[in-house]
Amino acid sequence: MYILVNEGIIPRSSFSVDIEDRGYQFGDGIYEMVKVFEGVLFEWEAHLQRLFRSARELRITISMNKEELTEQVQRLIAIEDLRDGYVYIQVTRGVASRIHHFPEGVSSVLVAYTKEGKEERKEELAGIRVITTEDIRWQRVDIKSLNLLGNVLAKQKAVEAGAQEAVFVRDGMVTECSSSNIFGIKDGVCFTHPANHLILNGITRQVVIRLLEKVSLELEESPMKLEALYGMDEVFITNTGQEVGPVIEIDGRKVGNGDIGVYSRNLSIEFQRLIDSVVPSKR
Ligand code: PMP
């Protein structure tokens, strides 16, 4: 298995993480996870933009420009002969003696690896059970940083409750989930939290927003109260791994009649169509 480390592609076995890497000690870094279908990076431009935005917000300098990084990631996919799966890319501020402020003269460390996963293409839509939990995270979750403890604790709480995802609630308002964005549909209007500092502006969220028109849904980017979420006709979550995930139960209460709703199903179909439009075998 090969990985990309800064500008070079090397065997994974020849790389080790320095104990003084700031990603390791402070969570001082950023990441992206990008799906690959038939060797094609899905929504690559959007992921690339977000990675560079996260870097800018944290004042981390990525050693390559967008074109160079694109070329290297494509080279890695070719070397690994990755057909279906994903690429994980991470950039940390670099390796330095442990001080909190930015160290001087340090170069960032970029690593990327691929993961094969044949199940990456969605066959069946499965209903998802979620719980809600207080959003205890910091107020810059729009940055896709390595600091994920709030997310980890929330997801663990969900798993221990027999659910698949945890919905964050901040001051009575639904923000997003531990590793996904959330949408609620009521009377043909699709609600989701606006893309500000309180949510990660998911790439899948952005794609789904573009698809709403195709399924005759109107968009309303305003936060939902928890009570409003319970009363939605349909609820679904989105992320790179899951795409459109219909929620059938929240805190033990059924969403609608407890079945996967028509809008969620149609959105998922439109999403699959979009993927088909970019993969070589279907073009
Ligand atoms: N919110 C959070 C907190 C996440 O971790 C993720 C997944 N990275 C998302 C939303 C969805 O983002 P995307 O659609 O880009 O995967």
UniProtKB/TrEMBL annotation:
Q: Which UniProt keywords apply?
A: Aminotransferase, Pyridoxal phosphate, Transferase
Which CDD domains does the record associate with it? D-AAT_like
Is this entry keyworded Transferase?
Answer: yes
Q: What is its EC number?
A: 2.6.1.21
Instruction: Quickly give the catalysed reaction.
Output: D-alanine + 2-oxoglutarate = D-glutamate + pyruvate
The broad enzyme category this protein falls into is transferase
This protein's cofactor list reads: pyridoxal 5'-phosphate
Q: Which GO terms describe its molecular function?
A: D-alanine-2-oxoglutarate aminotransferase activity
Highest taxon in the source lineage: Bacteria
Q: InterPro entries this protein is in?
A: Aminotrans_IV, Aminotransferase-like, BCAT-like_C, BCAT-like_N, Class-IV_PLP-Dep_Aminotrnsfr, D_amino_transT
Q: Which family does it belong to?
A: Belongs to the class-IV pyridoxal-phosphate-dependent aminotransferase family.
Q: How does it assemble?
A: Homodimer.
Q: What is this protein called?
A: D-alanine aminotransferase
- Taxonomic source organism: Niallia hominis
